[in-house]
Design goal:
six-stranded mixed beta sheet; three-stranded antiparallel beta sheet; globular
Length: 209
């Protein structure tokens, strides 16, 4: 019997572990804001630098060019749409994610994860963070084994209209949520895999009244 030649795809595991520590409430309506706390732990043997500032205008004051040492943790936008906007309240704001392919740039996305039975994991309540060597307080260095806590605001909304319809049809519903952190580096030949928390917290989601 002939045996096929199976090649295992190489994997580059995330340099961080993430834990979902808390939600600021376990009862929400779809479209509500939520604040959640996560812990990020450097699981490598090297110092890891991550973006730390939510203030885009301070880190990148010039929209036309990127300053030296610029780091970005997720950029989500369309024509004039900023991350965190609720498409239900901003009709023209269809959220999309653009990964910046620039030398020396880090790109990532921090969010909650809710699983849809058909489309799989859905990212909600995402938050952008930014960093630059020109603004030292906008960067965070993690020593090997060091953890840091981040408190993050976001909007409980699904960007996929089909997912939104399925979720609305079964509300009210108790969901299990996880935390998600996807860090990428264009300088790497093999991108990092996303880090997803192994722990879950419950969220009772209802229709907006």
């Amino acid at each position: 019997m002939a045996v096929g030649n199976h090649q295992t795809q190489p994997r580059n595991f995330a340099p961080l572990n993430i834990t979902l520590l808390s939600l600021d409430g376990h009862n929400r309506q779809l479209g509500d804001g939520i604040i959640y706390d996560v812990a990020l732990k450097n699981v490598t043997k090297d110092i890891l630098v991550i973006p730390w500032s939510p203030d885009w205008s301070k880190v990148k004051p010039n929209e036309e060019k990127y300053p030296p040492g610029y780091l970005v943790l997720h950029q989500a936008e369309n024509e004039g749409c900023r991350a965190g906007f609720n498409p239900a309240l901003h009709p023209g704001c269809a959220l999309s994610i653009h990964h910046l392919q620039l030398d020396g740039v880090l790109d990532a996305f921090l969010s909650l994860v809710i699983k849809d039975e058909i489309s799989g994991d859905q990212l909600v309540a995402g938050q952008a963070l930014y960093g630059s060597q020109l603004l030292p307080n906008s960067l965070k260095k993690l020593r090997p084994g060091q953890s840091v806590r981040i408190r993050t605001p976001g909007i409980l909304w699904f960007t996929d209209s089909d997912v939104t319809k399925r979720v609305l049809a079964k509300l009210p519903h108790m969901f299990e949520v996880q935390a998600y952190f996807n860090l990428s580096n264009p300088a790497l030949a093999l991108p990092y895999e996303p880090a997803v928390s192994t722990n879950r917290l419950t969220l009772d989601l209802k229709r907006r009244q």
